[in-house]
Amino acid sequence: MTIGELARKTGLSAHTIRYYERIGLLPYAHRDGYRRDYDASILTWIAFLLRLKSTGMPIREMLRYAALREKGIGTETERRLLLERHRAAVKKQLSDLKAWLLILDDKIAGYARAETRSKDHANANRHKPKPARTRQARAR
């Protein structure tokens, strides 16, 4: 498949595909003259890379994983450990996000209470009779 077809099927731009190929995340495509010709099996690998990327895995770790995958048998432990380390980092991020969400929820609730107090105050004052103006107040 051509780079354009691969781009359409994966949602990646042709530029990104070339970049991933250049840095080693994707294997070099066979060339038919000057055009790249990709095997359909690359779709599964790209889908996996996109899942790793969506978890926030840095490219350097993705490159390490790709290198281990390329080596094949005997690298399973290293690949598992790499994924476990990344999983721990994602869990830490999730924990931080939950804490930040609680802070935001508290602040939002505070503003909601303040809005209610402001409305109650405005409504209470709207029904109060205004004090009569004295001659001195009118003269000013």
TrEMBL record:
InterPro entries, alphabetized: DNA-bd_dom_put_sf (IPR009061), MerR-type_HTH_dom (IPR000551), MerR_fam (IPR047057)
Gene3D superfamilies: 1.10.1660.10
Entry keywords, A to Z: DNA-binding
Keyword match Electron transport: no
Region (Disordered): 116-140
Entry annotated with the keyword Transmembrane: no
Any one Gene Ontology molecular-function term assigned to this protein's record: DNA-binding transcription factor activity
Domain HTH merR-type: 1-68
Biased composition (Basic residues): 124-140
Pfam families in UniProt: MerR_1
SMART domains linked to this entry: HTH_MERR (SM00422)
Protein name: DNA-binding transcriptional MerR regulator
Species in which this protein is naturally found: Rhizomicrobium palustre
